Automatic annotation (TrEMBL), chains A, B:
Pfam families: MarR (PF01047)
Keywords from the named record: DNA-binding, Transcription, Transcription regulation
Residue runs in coiled coils: none
Gene Ontology MF: a single term: DNA-binding transcription factor activity
The keyword Cell wall biogenesis/degradation is annotated on this UniProt entry: no
The protein's name: HTH marR-type domain-containing protein
Organism lineage: Bacteria, Bacillati, Bacillota, Bacilli, Bacillales
Keyword DNA-binding: yes
Residue span, HTH marR-type domain: 1-141
Gene3D superfamilies in the record: Winged helix-like DNA-binding domain superfamily/Winged helix DNA-binding domain
SMART domains attached to this UniProt entry: HTH_MARR (SM00347)
């Protein structure tokens, strides 16, 4: 079992690594010239919640708050993000996407989706996709729930 | 099928995002105070090949070569990476891990592994791990092969 888990971890890392390379390299797409992959990742994370605190964003991207602040400024200059008042957190503002920000995320998701489709339709059966979904729904639920416990 | 694929992509992204947060936050581990997650990711990518060109590294991390050069300098100051002469590529040097670099990667992998083990042993059956391995071996092979085609 230990050996299988080690292999699973290594494979997951490889898929992230080679997947990133493939999507970025083979797509000579405009959005990759305009935005760095870190900026795109940040936009995508914001889009998954309606708005998000800088601290939570730093935690999800695995970087310090100072890095988030720099990235925020760059994205704000490009008109992609803005701040909104927080109902719950009186201390601070929350980060949200602008309409333009939502458009960039949609475009990025389409680029990723087209790539995944190319890979998957050639080499995977629908039953394998179902199995993938089953495993990842479970994984995602576990990780989200654990993340909420402070 | 389209809907399933979209869900698969979204779930994969969520697992990366919440997995990163969980591993970094819940482990008050020394290596996360000493090294940023980007530095750890770079060390890990180098460790997957014996040595690697700065260009390939930039491509795998999805950043510009200038970012790699900055990260390299920081890691070199910490004694974790070094350069070696390339047999194939006369133009440039390749980046390799030092012994200390290998130690940091091993420690990082252990931290990740312990976390995955905790999640998986409670909630997943061995047959699910087997299915995960089967899907990810295939995905990794496809992505690697495509990555080699220039």
């Amino acid at each position: 079992m230990n050996k299988k888990l080690s292999e699973a971890v290594a494979l997951f890392e490889e898929v992230i690594m080679y997947g990133t390379e493939r999507i970025i390299r083979s797509f000579e797409h405009q959005i990759f010239e305009e935005y760095s992959s870190e900026q795109l990742q940040m936009l995508q994370i914001i889009s998954k919640s309606e708005h998000i605190s800088p601290g939570k964003l730093a935690s999800l991207q695995g970087v310090h708050k100072s890095a988030i602040s720099n990235r925020y400024k760059k994205l704000e200059t490009k008109g992609l993000v803005t701040t909104v008042d927080s109902d719950e957190d009186l201390r601070g503002k929350l980060i949200a996407l602008t309409d333009k920000g939502h458009d960039v995320v949609s475009m990025f998701n389409e680029v990723i989706y087209e790539h995944v489709e190319k890979i998957v339709l050639d080499d995977f059966q629908e039953t394998e996709i179902d199995e993938f979904l089953r495993i990842f729904r479970k994984l995602s639920t576990i990780l989200k729930t654990e993340g909420d416990r402070k």
